[in-house]
Amino acid sequence: MGKDSKPHIGIFGRRNNGKSSLINFLAQQDLAIVSEVAGTTTDPVKKSMEIPGIGPVIIIDTAGIDDEGELGGKRIQKSMAAIKTIDFALLVITANEFAEPEKKIITELQKFDVPFLTIQNKADVSELNYDLIEELKLEFNVEPINFSTFEGYSRDELVKQIRKGIPETAYLSKSLVGDIIKEGDLVLLITPIDAEAPEGRLILPQVQAIRDILDNNAIAVVCKEREVDTLLKKLSPEPALAICDSQVFLKAGASVPNHIPLTSFSTVLARYKGDFQNYIKGTPHLSKLNDGDKVLILESCTHQTSCDDIGRVKVPRWLSNFTGKNLSYEVVAGLNDIPGEMTDYAMVIQCGGCMITRKQMISRLKPAIDLGIPVTNYGMGIAYMHGIYERAVAPFVKIDRDSLDYL
Predict the structure, then answer these.
(1) Domain 275-403, what fold?
(2) Of 167, 187, 378, which Cα lies nearest the Cα of 269?
(3) Which residue among 146, 149, 255, 313 has the highest number of C-beta atoms inside a 10 angstrom radius?
């Protein structure tokens, strides 16, 4: 799935601990600027690279966690925020220096369930001492290792430990729909071309679905929503599955016969890399919203908005009409900070997340889930509001009909 399937690795440590040298050593090429001047790396910088022994990855090189002054404090905040976006971390220390900055990083990594490796860099000058090893084992259940980019230390062993620590979920190797279709099946993709569609091309979820269908040796047939009725009369064999854009669920539901499984691109993505079980649990709460409730809409990309934008206009309009309640909405694009406190919101609606990783998606939703705030996503929420939720998720999960309040 393109860049989303690459593990994201963050590198953290104090200024001049050799983070950039370590990146270059792992990549076996000069990708990061190396300097004796403290603070050469300022804001977190993403680098797409190939690490021999690991494969394609995204490295996030962060500013020093001991930066100083008002600007330095802001840089540290950005480095800490990067933890929510990564699958694995390297915490680089030197000279056995381990104090509050390192403890804060480890605490945050553990908070977001990010596996990590602590490295005593420049070990040719100063190796780990016994007391620090025991402290880290006792306080954080962490076993640090010695390493140096100079001779005498095994790059292969370091790569092996990194590869071992990266969770398999970071590679997103599973298929979008490969477990519900078989070789030779015909899959119908219903893709509206409207003001939000990029000129001359399809949106990313549609492209991903086409590629996944082809990878599974099935056949993708693509049409706009107004062509579905005519096309279905001509298709033989009939589709084994139909996938539509969330905003044409009503039209697709009316056109595609009930015996043909129907879902949406957003619902497919929800299962692929979203928090699907919490979406299933949270979606019915759309019918339990009350007057004055505030709904948070997370649109995890930036795109050209239109007068009928799905996240900013259509979802709020549909939800207000569905509930009949006086609701307020906050839309947050990209991975920007969420305004106010999470407890301000009664419900969270997340987009499909085609532009972010699974880890970024899970971290984005975690504060709400931890507080017991129900979450759903565009496709599943729209299907629920339009009365076809059970059909939209049926290809992937058996739903307890007693939990579907609108039935």
Answers:
(1) Rossmann fold (3.40.50)
(2) 378
(3) 255
Check residue 339 and give its pLDDT.
92
- Residue 237: asked if its preceding bond is cis (omega within 30°), the reply is yes
How many Å apart are CA 304 and CA 42, to the nearest integer? 30
Residue 148's closest CA among 174, 122, 168? Answer: 122
List, for residues 238-259, the tens digit of each pLDDT value.
999 999 998 888 899 999 999 9
What local confidence, expressed as pLDDT, does residue 363 receive? 87
Q: Specify whether the CB–CB gap between 79 and 62 falls below 8 A.
A: yes
CA 113 to chain centre: 14
User: Tell me: domain 186-267, CATH 3.40.720.10, correct?
Assistant: no
Which CATH superfamily hosts domain 2-171? Answer: P-loop containing nucleotide triphosphate hydrolases (3.40.50.300)
DSSP 123: T
User: Residue 266 corresponds to which tokens in the numbers above?
Assistant: 């957003």
H or E stretch covering 349: strand 347-350
Paired with 350 in beta bridges are 298, 377
